[in-house]
Amino acid sequence: MTAGSARFAVFGFETTHDAVRAERVLLERGVSVRLIPTPRALGALCGLAARVPHEDARRTREALAEAAVCARGEIEIEDRGDE
Fold this sequence. Notes:
The chain is an alpha+beta fold.
């Protein structure tokens, strides 16, 4: 990882409803989450994905499972910021 970069886990969803519900569930559990356009690496999903800090990936998977929100894919990305 380069200076000024950060790693994130990105979760993709089949529907916009699932993405928005995931955001609400994660915020309620104190996870820093941001909805972003779905990265191509996740394939053809709804168009919205949830980005969380890499260190919160496990907590995110657990929270989504408890709330019965199904993530259809997960990838890791590196945000290089303003280089």
